[in-house]
Amino acid sequence: EVQVVESGGGLVQPGGSLRLSCAASGFIFSDHYMDWVRQAPGKGLEWVGRIRNKARSYTTEYAASVKGRFTISGDNSKNSLYLQMNSLKTEDTAVYYCARSGRGGYSPIDVWGQGTAVTVSS
Amino acid sequence: DIQMTQSPSSLSASVGDRVTITCRASQGISKSLAWFQQKPGKAPKSLIYDISSLQSGVPSKFSGSGSGTDFTLTINSLQPEDSATYYCQQYNDYPITFGQGTRLEIK
After folding, report:
1. C-alpha closest to that of A88 among A111, A122, A47, A54
2. Which of A13, B15, B24, B104 has a CA 20 to 30 Å removed from the CA of B76?
3. In chain A, what residues touch B38 (CB-CB under 8 Å)?
4. pLDDT in tens, A20-58
5. B96:A114 CB<8 A
6. What is the CA angle A83-A8-A106, rounded to 5?
7. Contacts B46 to A, Cβ<8 Å
């Protein structure tokens, strides 16, 4: 079964850092693009960023709201995706979803994790 | 950035009805349009990609259509379990962007 499971959420103070993890199973991790999407309380979905697959040299893209503060990386040996979040702001409070996308080109999301909640507050 | 505008923001329909949700892109997005369903407190679920292709396991009561900048999601034979918020998304250009969502209530 194809599955992605997030972990690492929690409470952090403004200006702090947090690393989210996403464990992938049931598919060849290095073949797929992977995304992070977040949802602030009571709000809609916001795309955070993407890491492309091995064939595309694991290049990344980010939303303007997180560029320079968040970093997406992956570890094929552990079939895991990460989201390193630095200089956190209160507006980063959200449920963060890991999602699998396609294998290249214009890649839609097809599989979502259950999400992990991040609260940025003093 | 490509802006995605959904209408209506919310709607109410009865069991057995057919509903249509519209999504408009601020510029052409070729066929890079997806639809997602999200129930309260749950993760989104992928329904449709490339305008009209159903994700694996999605029932045929869901269908998508459109081209260029105007797209629709149609849901036939509404059931209580279809009550959810529906989002469109474009993945033609970065940043990837979502519509604001359409909340569907089943009366």
Report:
1. A122
2. B24
3. 45
4. 999 999 999 999 999 999 999 999 999 999 999 999 999
5. no
6. 35
7. 108-112
